[in-house]
Amino acid sequence: MYDTIVVGAGVAGCVLAGELARRGNKKVLVIEKRNHIAGNCYDEYDEYGIMVHVYGPHIFHTEYERVYEYLSQYTEWYEFGHEVHANVHGNIINVPFNLNTLHKVYDEEKAARLENKLVSSYGMDSRVPILTLKENEDPEVREVAEYVYENIFLRYTMKQWGKKPEEIDPNVTARVPVVISRDNRYFKDKYQGMPLQGYTAMFEKILDHDNIEVQTGTAAEELLTIKDDRIYYEGEVFDGPVIYTGLADELFGYEYGHLPYRSLKFKFEHYKKESFQGCSVVNYTVDEDYTRITEFKYLTGQVNTPETTIVKEYPEAYNGENTPYYSINNPDNDGVYAKYKAKADRIPNLYLLGRLAEYKYYNIDAIALRSLELADSLVRGSE
Ligand code: FAD
Ligand code: UDP
Fold it and tell me: Partner of 273 at 20 to 30 A CA spacing, among 29, 212, 314, 348?
């Protein structure tokens, strides 16, 4: 009845199903346990008529021409350069820290002096890791690195990852940059913005094909079982490709233990006023239990709405009940994952794909590209 089964209707599942149905002319069944498609990119209008991202703010950005062109077949774009601010004890500054930020943190004279020093040491338009700044012989330049570490990086990272300061990997610290530029955009990618009608509408179009059947509200376990390295669909052996985008540990009954994740609690609030914070994202890098507040109207270009909806993000551990959002990659956890992967590799028609199944952080564009490439090889293989 079906040639291919796809578990999960997130970015990975939708792209794969769409490509196999169209280019491969395969009959595809998509099984999704949530009652909607689009995975964590899912967006919808709230009761006040404002489009919100239910699983946190998602900004599309890419350098991959292939991904941009592929998705552009299914959506137009609201193009904008995403900016992020940080609230440092009430002072609103730009993140990543750049030359504009200098002028919000230091008095005019000191900011101008530091700007000259940074530009002459590192050159305009460079990104300098704070670890490099810390090695500068000028104490005033080292002070900038210290400021960024203390006021932008440390507390935010402790909240996000549930860590104590001494547990924070210095290699991660090293990646936090100071940007020698006046460009306030968070991403540098050529393409950045939002699907004009939203992500859900874009993925609906991708799945809208006669060869695709989507069953939402259905967990894979209800239909699929694995026994002796073979996959069974409703009790019958299924030899076609099965693309699995759910949790790798769950697929194998947690045989080697649970893979740890960070989760998030989202608290939505609505205000009967035009604006809450005047911009899309403010990170709370020193105070509060939440990491950031997103005001959707600025993210999705709905700026003419008379009221506003925001969401606060509270990080927490994944406990099996809440949603696993971020894999916690370290040698121990990656070692456990490798065992699940080896088990999956013994099943020739099983493909683990996506941020859950591969225990890996993917941005939207990266997983879309990976899915297009897997579709290439599956279509080629069946020609
Ligand atoms: P998912 O979107 O998680 O899709 C997997 C789907 O599989 C889910 O719908 C799930 O319900 C389903 N599923 C799982 N198990 C089963 C099962 N057993 N049976 C049936 N269905 C199952 N990326 C960006 O590029 N820009 C951003 O700004 C950005 N912001 C983010 C913000 C947050 C808070 C988070 C958590 C992520 C963000 N990302 C962002 C990353 C983005 O969410 C991922 O790239 C994308 O969701 C990955 O798609 P996926 O298909 O791998 O996984
Ligand atoms: N980060 C930080 N302060 C900030 C923003 C980010 O310390 O204001 C750190 C933090 O450790 C975070 C990482 O940088 O986990 C990546 O943040 P980013 O916003 O790029 O990624 P996302 O949280 O969307 O995955």
Answer: 314
